[in-house]
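Here is one such tokenized protein:
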Amino acid sequence: MSDDCIFCQLLQNKEQTLVVHETENFRAWLDINPRAKGHTMVVPKEHLTSAEEVGENLLEMFDVARIVGEKAKNGIGAEGYSIVVNNGSVAGQMMDHFYMIVFPRFSGEEREETPTGAIFPHNEDISKEDLMEFMDAMSEASFNEYSGGMPTPDLEKDFSSEDEDGEFEKEISEEGSGKRKVKRSDSFAEFR
């Protein structure tokens, strides 16, 4: 626990929070300055500052957020929910204690059907070549292994040149599963 962390102080004084769910490692409470009906904070009980520090417990944390969403649907009539994660101050993390936010969603709201990702407008300055560079750099970058024992496919990283439709296509191999084709379009990768 950190003495100067508001979340750590709230974790030490449970009676000051409106708890809707709790596990051994996480507590979920209603935000006292809500942006939506049922706006809930999911917080690790240990002072952890990033998703990387939460590590393999992210699975449990997402499960807590899912449970909170279901409780909002069954308890206050939400029709859906958004789970928001901001990892690092540049991404909008406002506390030096990692957290997730659950926003219950309701029909008839001004923001109905607006995805939380809508805050990022389409960036016309990013070319297909840039995307390929990003893919290469990110796929080759180091990371902490928190797969929970799940095998990570060994995918080939390079795509062949663009076809007449402006798409990239390449056969990839996955360990133990043979080969299949991947088609990379402007907005997502389709497996076929």
